[in-house]
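Work Package 4 report. The design task specified in the project plan requires that, given a folded chain encoded as structure tokens, an amino acid be chosen for each position. We show below one input record used in the internal validation round.
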């Protein structure tokens, strides 16, 4: 049987592989073409005679023609170097062989491509080459009674094309001729025993069809000797027309070694990434034939892959090795026998960790075998790929406005760089240091998260400042920051047991609702206004003074509507309040000397009110941040006749996340300021109206 013999068709697809990206990049800034050759021939058989030899790159010819001018810019041997040309539209032609009219074992390859080129541009152009001539071979069927060997001393088929001829015998060679030719086939033989010469024209419908002799077509003619008497008849048993293929017995070592290329790595085969970062590294294998085997070595600093033996060389052909790698790394390896193969490392980089925040360097060394050759044949090739997993960067903060007397809330983690925010959050806890251990933040209902609520009463919490952090997957901590609780302050002299009396004369004493010499935040009153007229013997004394009509203890504050002006009975300009502020007070002007940096959740007090006419007592409460000019809570209401009762003001903050700087609590004995009775009506020398007794003020801190 005559067999088709090609080496070049295969070698074009692998010896002249597309120029690599790095070769292209090295030419940046120059104008010209980088030409890549590739074969376009179906390969399903691989036999070729050794005499065809191993083609070299220099055997290919290139021609580059300017399509506008028709001038040839390059005509010469194939080169992997940049071919400089000016900007324009070009046709690139690559050929191998001489395209003879007729010859034995003389394949001719040709490929063309078009490309435009801008000034300053370098471009890689791939030219797909295919068999551009046609061929024929003959099979002599010797299976019958009469065989060619028994009847002929010599025999063959003469192939004639345009005056040229060659004879095909049973030596495995094929006749090549230019595509589109119409060859003539004639059987020629010398009979044994001096029987003379015999010539038989071979005719068949396929042998007269132009499609049989198109480029890349192989016409295989099978002949036999008829057993019919009398005489011998040469007959065409069959004609097969197939695309050019290669036989299985090609020496695999003649094909190029497999090549490993990497995606996602830098020029040193290194990929630096941040833990949780979405990267997609991949190793691709350029194979000339089916994958035969692969060697893998691992050197991982990531502690979770400690099971990988650094000294072991794992083999793809070893099922146990393959299974162990896939299970440990979470990746899929190709199978022996695959013609297209790669390793997607994305699943591995998804799993790679730092060691408690310390970067890990993890290397994979790959050696691929195909067509009995290893990719490591080229000792200069770097087949080690390095994955460097770095610490993700994230941070937390605590705003003063999110720190209360019994709890604090940490801001949501801030992730910087390329780390995956959602992956970080999904495996993150927020912690505070209790002086001994780091404890996960939780509410009093044991709900973990960013809020830490203490079960102790605010006044019982001795430690006010805590270190806080975020901890990712139990191993990587953010920088520590402070969370400082508010101090659960009470208003000064809230039981009104401390008083200072200034004896000005027998009728006009001045009362202060604090101890003599007290400093800092105190109560302020209008007493200095209501005692400034001393000419009348019956004038009123302080609008605010000490009283034994109290809820508990010894004293309470007694606030009265008193006259002010001529004889202190003039209803205009009544001053009748007591106000808790941090500083001094003058009518119409507040001057703050100290701050009140706590936010109570409830303000409570006891009061007793004696109403004059339809007058009513007034209570005003305001918490604010004066630096930011924000009112956090404000309310005002009136009270009327009652014995001592407790009153609670639940503080529902309209603004959260902002700390307080000041509190103002005002008690006014009257809302009308014009109900003043004479001393005679009361049986005394004093003139006043409604009376507001206040005692035992307390601030509650439940948050």
């Amino acid at each position: 049987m005559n067999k088709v013999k090609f080496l070049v068709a295969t070698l074009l697809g692998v010896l002249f592989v597309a120029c690599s990206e790095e070769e292209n990049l090295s030419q940046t800034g120059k104008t010209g073409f980088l030409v890549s050759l590739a074969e376009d021939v179906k390969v399903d058989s691989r036999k070729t005679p050794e005499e065809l030899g191993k083609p070299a790159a220099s055997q290919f010819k290139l021609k580059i023609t300017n399509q506008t001018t028709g001038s040839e810019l390059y005509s010469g041997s194939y080169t992997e170097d940049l071919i400089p040309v000016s900007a324009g539209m070009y046709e690139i032609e690559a050929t191998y062989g001489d395209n003879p009219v007729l010859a034995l074992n003389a394949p001719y390859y040709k490929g063309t491509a078009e490309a435009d080129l801008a000034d300053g541009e370098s471009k890689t152009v791939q030219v797909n080459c295919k068999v551009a001539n046609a061929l024929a071979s003959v099979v002599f069927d010797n299976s019958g009674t009469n065989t060619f060997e028994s009847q002929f001393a010599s025999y063959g088929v003469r192939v004639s094309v345009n005056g040229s001829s060659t004879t095909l015998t049973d030596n495995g060679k094929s006749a090549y001729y230019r595509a589109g030719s119409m060859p003539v086939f004639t059987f020629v033989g010398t009979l044994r025993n001096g029987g003379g010469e015999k010539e038989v024209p071979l005719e068949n419908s396929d042998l007269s069809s132009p499609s049989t002799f198109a480029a890349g077509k192989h016409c295989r003619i099978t002949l036999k000797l008829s057993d019919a008497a009398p005489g011998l008849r040469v007959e065409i048993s069959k004609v097969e027309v197939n695309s050019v293929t290669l036989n299985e017995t090609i020496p695999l070592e003649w094909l190029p070694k497999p090549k490993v290329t990497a995606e996602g790595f830098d020029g040193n085969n290194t990929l630096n990434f941040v833990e949780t970062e979405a990267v997609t590294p991949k190793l691709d294998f350029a194979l000339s034939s089916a994958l035969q085997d692969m060697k893998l070595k691992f050197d991982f600093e990531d502690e979770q892959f400690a099971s990988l033996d650094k000294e072991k060389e794992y083999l793809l052909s070893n099922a146990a090795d393959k299974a162990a790698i896939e299970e440990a790394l979470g990746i899929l390896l190709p199978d022996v026998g695959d013609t297209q193969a790669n390793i997607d490392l994305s699943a591995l980089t998804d799993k790679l960790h730092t060691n408690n925040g310390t970067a890990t360097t993890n290397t994979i060394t790959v050696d691929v075998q195909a067509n009995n050759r290893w990719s490591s044949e080229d000792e200069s090739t770097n087949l080690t790929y390095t994955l460097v997993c770095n610490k993700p960067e994230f941070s937390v903060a605590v705003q003063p406005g999110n720190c209360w007397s019994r709890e604090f809330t940490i801001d949501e983690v801030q992730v910087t760089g390329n780390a995956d925010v959602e992956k970080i959050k999904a495996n993150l806890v927020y912690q505070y240091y209790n002086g001994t251990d780091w404890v996960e933040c939780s509410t009093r209902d044991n709900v973990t998260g960013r809020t830490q609520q203490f079960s102790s009463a605010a006044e019982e919490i001795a430690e006010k400042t805590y270190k806080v952090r975020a901890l990712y997957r139990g191993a990587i901590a953010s920088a520590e920051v402070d969370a400082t609780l508010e101090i659960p302050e009470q208003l000064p002299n809230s039981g009104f047991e401390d008083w200072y009396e200034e004896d000005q004369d027998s009728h006009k004493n001045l009362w202060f609702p604090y101890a003599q010499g007290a400093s800092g935040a105190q109560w302020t009153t209008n007493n200095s206004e209501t005692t400034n007229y001393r000419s009348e013997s019956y004038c009123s004394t302080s609008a605010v003074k000490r009283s034994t009509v109290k809820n508990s203890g010894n004293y309470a504050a007694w606030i009265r509507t008193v006259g002010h002006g001529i004889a202190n009975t003039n209803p205009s300009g009544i001053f009748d309040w007591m106000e808790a502020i941090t500083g001094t007070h003058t009518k119409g002007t507040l001057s703050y000397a100290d701050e009140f940096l706590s936010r109570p959740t409830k303000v409570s007090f006891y009061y007793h009110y004696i109403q004059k006419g339809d007058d009513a007592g007034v209570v005003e409460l305001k918490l604010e941040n004066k630096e930011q000019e924000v009112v956090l809570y404000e309310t005002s209401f009136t009270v009327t006749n009652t014995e001592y009762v407790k009153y609670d003001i639940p503080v529902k903050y309209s603004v959260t996340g902002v700390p307080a700087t000041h509190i103002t609590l005002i008690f006014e004995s009257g809302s009308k300021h014009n109900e003043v009775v004479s001393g005679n009506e009361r049986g005394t020398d004093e003139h006043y109206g409604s009376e507001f007794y206040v005692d035992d003020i307390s601030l509650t801190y439940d948050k």
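The chain has five domains: 8-133, 140-243, 257-390, 394-484, 500-700. Validation will be extended to a larger panel in the next phase.
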